[in-house]
Specification:
The structure holds two protein chains of two kinds.
Chain A (H helix, E strand, L loop, with lengths): L11 H8 L3 E15 L5 H15 L8 H12 L8 E4 L21 E5 L1 H24 L4 E10 L6 E14 L9 E2 L4 H9 L2 E16 L2 H8 L4 E2 L1 H19 L9 E14 L2 E15 L12 E3 L4
Parallel strand pairs in A: 4-6
Antiparallel strand pairs in A: 1-5, 2-3, 3-7, 4-5, 7-10, 9-10
Chain B lengths: L9 H11 L19 H9 L2 E14 L14 E2 L1 H24 L4 E7 L4 E3 L2 E13 L11 E2 L4 H9 L2 E14 L5 H6 L8 H24 L4 E10 L7 E13 L10 E3 L12 H6 L3
Parallel strand pairs in B: 3-6
Antiparallel strand pairs in B: 1-5, 2-7, 3-5, 4-5, 7-9, 8-9
Helix pairs in contact in B: 2-4
Classes of the chains: A alpha+beta, B alpha+beta.
Chain lengths: 311, 291
């Protein structure tokens, strides 16, 4: 039965648009999760020790520093969704190490952009908990799905310490149909949801992927950062692109559906220098996975109109 | 093929598909593993002109602003800081070209909805530029031969209108100029005290700085073989290097007149019956009216 009163944060136009495809709002539902993300033990010290290791080993035939190897071994044991990311920036200086008199051996070493396996995945898990709670509340109210989900993330931008995720959405129901085993969730407005259903697509799940990359700067980056001239710093620029790509790849892994399209994806990133030898970049990517339920046909061509309005 | 909107109960069919997990699978050549940063309206708008989203692509550049030259700026002169103009211009173009590279790797036709964080994020001496957009491709089987990819800051709706008008976007273009504005001499400062006067030197330098940014944007567009640039904006950033250094950034989408003839791009006239009649008001008269 359709409730007589329901509180929604959808606008009147959004509610009207929902009505065109037979849905009606049931109420506002909230899901929340607070996650503690511990700082990696003595990572700063390990970074400095790693600089010594890298200086003494050079490229070491492509071998990774022991700290990265150990962290990745632990991550693999925990059955993570995808392999952690790592990229190497070998020394590109023309001076061969140790052949120039007075050249210190410690001045030439490779740099690494590598994914910290813990924080991004912990935030992604926190999001999944919040989404499950949101969906449970929607099911309890007899809804078939939740639309217009808004996400609030409170905490450190580099995902350190306590991270709080709050999801707020409008639960919607369709006639007197039985509830779904798992209600659909979407970050789409009522208007967008209505248009999507009319073009033969239905949202399935609102997903989030998050990642944190640590950049242990190599000798070339260090030279660029210490020089008096203006330089484009390749390693840090790459880290920003890579962290966004890794976050998007993790978002893909949050759905059971293979090859499903994502719509209205939003990306957020941050970066900061955490020590003399390290930069850290973080990103999260959120979007709605959708599926076709009927042959999608091209919608009729829009008409062009000029409103006769006095400006 | 009937349109899903014409079905008796599209929402009921959608719920049945969700309940059973049996979704509709289209032809095998239509890959569905797409990611889009576009809104649903934008997706519909580009579908109407034969395009679909493929993936979200990113590009970034981080620049360190060195200190060489910072302490030797001429304190009483207005002039362009060429070294800084080049560095900032190069960084923005690098971010866009990285995005183009990603787009070419996934064999998309181009990128729309490019958002370039033009103002950058400054932390210490580092300035960060991040560009992102949605790579799109024509609907249907892939065309043979790799044509060059385009980039554009246009929304899905603007892209739709542009194609319907018979034009084609070819590239996101940016022009940068960084100027130093010096102190006025003591004599000029003293002579202007108590008088309302135009600071002609500063005015002409600000003009020159903006025009230089636009000129560089125009040259970049010409280099791409464009017929024009649309959606141009000029951004101004103060305190780039020091308190007297200002940067001007002009950006827009270079377009070319396509070979196709324009579709019906003549708009209908729409008279809104609920439009409120607005009486022209004069801010000046209301400000100075004293009864």
């Amino acid at each position: 039965m359709r409730p007589s009163r329901s509180s929604v944060h959808a606008t009147a136009a959004s509610v009207r648009a929902l009505g065109t495809v037979g849905f009606h709002p049931v109420g506002v539902v909230i899901g929340n999760s607070t996650t503690h993300i511990p700082r990696p033990v003595a990572l700063k010290l390990q970074g400095r020790l790693s600089t010594l290791w890298r200086s003494s080993m050079g490229d070491a035939g492509g071998a990774l520093p022991p700290v990265i190897e150990r962290m990745y071994a632990q991550a693999t044991g925990q059955d993570h969704a995808i392999d952690p990311y790592v990229a190497t920036y070998p020394c590109a200086h023309p001076v061969t190490r140790g052949l120039v008199p007075g050249q210190r051996l410690t001045e030439h070493y490779p740099g690494y952009n590598w994914e910290l396996p813990g924080p991004g995945r912990a935030l992604t898990q926190g999001f999944e908990h919040a989404l499950t709670r949101l969906a449970d509340r929607a099911t309890a109210r007899g809804a078939h799905g939740v639309i217009d989900i808004r996400m609030e993330v409170v905490g450190d931008e580099l995902f350190r310490g306590t991270m709080d995720i709050t999801l707020t959405g409008t639960a919607v129901a369709y006639g007197t149909e039985l509830p779904l085993p798992r209600p659909f969730t979407a970050g789409l407005s009522g208007q967008a949801f209505s248009k999507m259903v009319q073009t033969g697509m239905i949202p399935v799940k609102f997903c989030l992927g998050a990642a944190v990359l640590s950049s242990w700067i190599g000798c070339q980056t260090r030279t660029q950062l210490e020089s008096g001239y203006s330089f484009s710093v390749e390693q840090i620029g790459d880290a920003l692109v890579q962290v966004r790509d890794v976050a998007t790849a993790l978002m893909w892994k949050q759905t059971d559906l293979s090859d499903a399209p994502f719509v209205e994806v939003t990306l957020h990133h941050a970066h900061a220098r955490t020590s003399k030898t390290e930069f850290r970049t973080s990103a999260w990517s959120a979007g709605t996975v959708v599926q076709p339920f009927a042959p999608t046909a091209s919608p009729p061509m829009s008409r062009l109109v000029v409103p006769m309005r006095q400006q | 093929m009937s349109h899903p909107a014409e079905a008796v109960d599209p929402a009921g069919a959608a719920l049945t598909a969700l309940r059973s997990g049996a979704y509709f699978s289209g032809p095998a050549e239509n890959s569905t593993d797409t990611t889009s940063g576009l809104t649903i309206d934008e997706q519909i708008a580009i579908a109407q002109v034969g395009y679909e989203p493929q993936d979200v692509v990113n590009g970034a550049a981080v620049v360190r602003l060195g200190i060489n030259g910072k302490n030797t700026l001429h304190p009483f002169s207005n002039y362009e800081v060429v070294q800084l103009s080049r560095t900032m211009g190069f960084a923005r173009q690098h971010a866009v070209s990285q995005m183009e590279k990603q787009c070419a790797e996934i064999e998309a036709a181009g990128v729309i909805g490019v958002h370039l964080d033009l103002a950058g994020t400054e932390e210490g001496d580092l300035v960060t530029f991040v560009a992102s957009g949605t790579a799109v491709r024509p609907i249907g089987p892939k065309a043979e031969g790799g044509a060059s990819v385009f980039t554009s800051s246009l929304s899905g709706q603007d892209f739709h209108l542009l194609l319907r008008s018979g034009c084609v976007p070819i590239g996101f273009v940016v022009g940068t100029s960084v100027f130093h504005f010096g102190w006025r001499s003591f004599g000029k400062w003293a002579s202007s005290q108590g008088r309302c006067t135009e600071l002609s030197s500063l005015t002409s330098s600000l003009y020159a700085a903006r025009e230089l940014a636009i000129e560089r944007l125009r040259r970049q567009a010409l280099h791409l073989g464009a017929d024009g640039v649309i959606d141009v904006s000029v951004l101004e950033r103060a305190d780039v290097w020091s308190s007297h250094v200002i940067e001007f950034v002009a950006y827009g989408t270079a377009i070319t007149l396509g070979e196709k003839t324009a579709l019906s791009a003549v708009p209908d006239i729409l008279v809104l019956l609920n439009d409120r009649a607005t009486t022209p008001t004069s801010t000046r008269s209301s400000t100075f009216a004293r009864e």
